[in-house]
């Protein structure tokens, strides 16, 4: 029991340290501000680049597996392979050293240690290795939701460009270049590739829609391709954008309704407990009599 209390105190103290560290605002460094003005990497960016390089070397030398789905999720979240494996390393070391520190503390206090701390440390390291994978998957849904919200803004920008008498391809390129979000950068890269190959950009946009799981972008490509037949796409595009926005709003309302219904169960639990607390004395009296 004493060892468990010490371990809980260590975890609580570490959490308090993280809270205090996060509450202290770091002052702005003058050299970082000057680096931003000169378009040079700041000290934090240089350190992050160094950590990314360390993670990539770690992945190459140890031949750690990286699936195509994980690469896709990293691209969607604007993360590098090095950053992902550095996070894996941090969680693995954390899972290993917390039980190891508990075992070392027990040894310093003169208590028998045995192999239990080592086994727990190995299990913690194994679990910590997969924490980054779980975090990567959990952030994919949020990134997809942000991408869908951003794509509707992209549609509005394209409509404004078309109303300014820009061509369909030029309007799409101008709208995509207005943001530095990962999806917008991917669209810009696809449009630039199509321009260099001197082909229509719409198949490339359909490919982006399949990669990111955004079917609205494929519908947008179908509408914009009508310009090849000489059709005026501004009115058709506005009508389709309105339909996509209404469908997106209906989907969001359905999700909000599901979340509200899921919360209803937890709201009824206190009422049930209160009812049991009120009825229990009477039931105990009847059973005793």
From TrEMBL:
Superkingdom per UniProt: Bacteria
Arranged from A to Z, the UniProt key words for this protein are: Membrane, Transmembrane, Transmembrane helix
TM ranges? 89-108, 115-132, 265-286
Entry annotated with the keyword Transmembrane: yes
**In the UniProt record, does the keyword Membrane occur?**
yes
Name the PANTHER family on file: INTEGRAL MEMBRANE PROTEIN-RELATED, PILUS ASSEMBLY PROTEIN
Q: What is this protein called?
A: Type II secretion system protein GspF domain-containing protein
Q: What is the lineage of its organism?
A: Bacteria, Bacillati, Actinomycetota, Actinomycetes, Propionibacteriales
């Amino acid at each position: 029991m004493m060892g468990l209390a010490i371990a809980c105190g260590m975890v609580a103290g570490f959490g308090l340290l993280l809270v205090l560290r996060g509450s202290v605002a770091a002052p702005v460094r003058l050299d970082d501000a000057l680096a931003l003005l000169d378009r040079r990497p700041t000290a934090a960016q240089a350190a992050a680049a160094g950590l990314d390089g360390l993670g990539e070397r770690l992945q190459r030398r140890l031949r750690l597996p990286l699936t195509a789905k994980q690469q896709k999720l990293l691209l969607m979240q604007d993360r590098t392979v090095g950053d992902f494996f550095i996070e894996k390393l941090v969680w693995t070391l954390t899972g290993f050293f917390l039980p190891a520190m508990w075992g070392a503390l027990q040894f310093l206090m003169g208590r028998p240690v045995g192999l239990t701390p080592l086994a727990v440390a190995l299990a913690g390291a194994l679990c910590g290795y997969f924490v980054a994978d779980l975090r990567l998957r959990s952030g994919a849904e949020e990134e997809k939701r942000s991408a869908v919200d951003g794509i509707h803004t992209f549609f509005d920008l394209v409509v404004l460009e078309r109303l300014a008498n820009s061509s369909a391809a030029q309007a799409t390129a101008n709208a995509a270049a207005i943001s530095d979000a990962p999806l917008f950068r991917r669209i810009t890269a696809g449009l630039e590739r199509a321009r260099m190959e001197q082909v229509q950009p719409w198949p490339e946009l359909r490919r982006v829609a399949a990669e990111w799981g955004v079917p609205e972008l494929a519908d947008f490509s179908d509408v914009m391709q009508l310009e090849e037949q000489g059709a005026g796409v501004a009115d058709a595009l506005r009508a389709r954008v309105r339909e996509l926005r209404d469908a997106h709003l209906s989907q969001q309302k359905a999700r909000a309704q599901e979340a509200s219904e899921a919360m209803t169960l937890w709201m009824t639990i206190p009422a049930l407990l209160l009812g049991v607390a009120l009825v229990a004395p009477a039931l105990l009296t009847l059973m005793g009599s």
